[in-house]
Design brief:
The protein is α/β, with parallel strands linked by helices. The protein has a single domain, classed as Rossmann fold. 33% of the residues lie in helices and 18% in strands. The chain has 7 helices and 9 strands; from the N terminus they run βαβαββααβββαβααβ.
Length: 235
């Protein structure tokens, strides 16, 4: 079993490990480059991480932290379905991070325009026309193996030079268009941490760990490796 897969028996240890991963990445990036760039996800799994970070804001250098988002729904930023809304209400608005350091995906403008604006903002921030390297990308995983808003079998998985792609949320009525970081942009990060609660996702977690999935399943592309760490909550 890979050393980059770590399992925790309870919520407290799992959240502590996630917080430590964030703190360690921040300290290392600020020490080496003067800033910390991190992409955070939506969903329920990261919510305890946001809450824990807000409880001890002095342990991270928020002044030098720039927050990006792995994905976003095409809804108003005040909508409870918005990934930005959850990150902001649970953490960002409580730790004093500057609004200029929060790189929101403007989903309310529709998928096409949101992709264009997020791409332009990110490239302007990093400079150059290559694939930027975020210091840390935090992901969750759905029961179907989706990560960010990249779903199994999606053509968006094959995006090449783009940083962001438009996607639809399958199996819902009405469908909610989404914008997601592209898989190449995710994998270009210096570190990727996947946070998963095993309950309800047992088969998918086991299939990823055994290497049984083909590349049509996004989770297979972020299996544990030298730069990808999985933190799994067992309970």
């Amino acid at each position: 079993m890979t050393a980059n897969l770590k399992t925790y028996d309870n919520r407290e240890d799992f959240v502590f490990a996630a917080v430590q991963a964030m703190h360690t990445a921040c300290a290392g990036a600020v020490g080496q480059r003067g800033i910390f760039t991190v992409a955070v996800p939506g969903g329920t799994t990261p919510k305890p991480l946001f809450e824990a970070l807000a409880q001890s804001p002095g342990e991270m250098d928020w002044e030098r932290t720039h927050v990006f988002f792995t994905d976003e729904r095409c809804v108003d930023p005040a909508d409870s379905r918005s990934n930005y809304f959850n990150a902001d209400s649970l953490c960002l608005s409580r730790v004093g991070v500057s609004e200029y350091n929060v790189h929101r995906i403007p989903g309310e403008k529709g998928a096409g325009e949101a992709v264009r604006e997020a791409e332009a903002d990110t490239r302007a921030f990093f400079g150059g026309d290559g694939m930027p390297a975020l210091d840390l990308v935090v992901l969750g995983m759905g029961p179907d193996g989706h990560v960010a808003s990249l779903f199994p079998g999606s053509q968006a998985l094959e995006a090449d030079g783009s940083l962001y792609v438009a996607e639809e949320e399958p199996g819902r009525d009405p469908r909610v268009p989404r914008v997601s970081m592209s898989m190449p942009f995710i994998l270009a990060a210096r570190k990727v941490v996947v946070l998963v609660r095993r309950k309800g996702k047992e088969k998918m977690v086991d299939a990823v760990m055994r290497g049984e999935l083909d590349r049509s399943v996004p989770a297979a592309r972020v299996a544990p490796s030298a730069t990808v760490e999985w933190l799994v909550r067992a309970d």
